[in-house]
Amino acid sequence: MLYAAEGGGGVGGLTPILMIALLFGVMYFMMIRPQQKRRREAESMQSALAPGDEVVTIGGLYGTVTGVDDDTVLLEVAPGVQTRYARPAIARVVSQAERPAEPVAEDADVVKE
Fold it and tell me: pLDDT averaged over the chain?
């Protein structure tokens, strides 16, 4: 009699687990995945820094990149005034310096005479 009063059996115990899994799925697609994408974009922007780029630091300081090291960037913030910043301190690139065009590889099939 008590068994009949409890109802549906094992299906009721599975519902909370499904709700928790659904909650984690929504959190992944709404929070974690976009944050990872922004982090990858920031890392690629910081690794592509080159002398002549105008940048803004996370503190709001505008400057021109004059030198790039493995983990630091040298910025000219005023004529003759240079400061050193860590690469992650660069928030965005305002304008990129003109880069020389990469040479086009010649066709291997063409024989020069």
Answer: 84
